[in-house]
């Protein structure tokens, strides 16, 4: 044992675990807030584009953004359902980018 090395006690290990857990909870909160918002917005735009094929553009846009509230709540609940913070961020990012890509394709096709 090195002379200057601090002695690791039960309290020190407990504080380290608590500190790590706080960062995980913080990351999950940020994923629920910002990742959920990105997913809800991209899904609202996609739903608006899909519904725009069968109804008036304004009604389709309003319907998409009304459904965004449900999507946002479901995304926030899903983040805390037991997946890791890294997996939650990656899944929200993949879904958001996928919806944004499909929205862009539909805009290009419908123009």
Tags for this entry?
mainly alpha; single chain; elongated; 111 residues
Provide the fold topology.
Elements: H1 10-51, H2 57-79, H3 85-110
Quick description:
With 111 residues, the protein is mainly α.
Q: Name the shape in a single word.
A: elongated
The average pLDDT score comes to 87
Unreliable stretches: none
The CA-CA distance between the termini, in Å, is 71 Å
Please, how many domains? 1
Determine Rg (CA atoms, Å). 21 Å
Please give a structural write-up.
There is one protein chain. The protein is mainly alpha-helical. It has one domain. The protein has 3 helices and no strands. The chain has helices spanning 10-51, 57-79, 85-110.
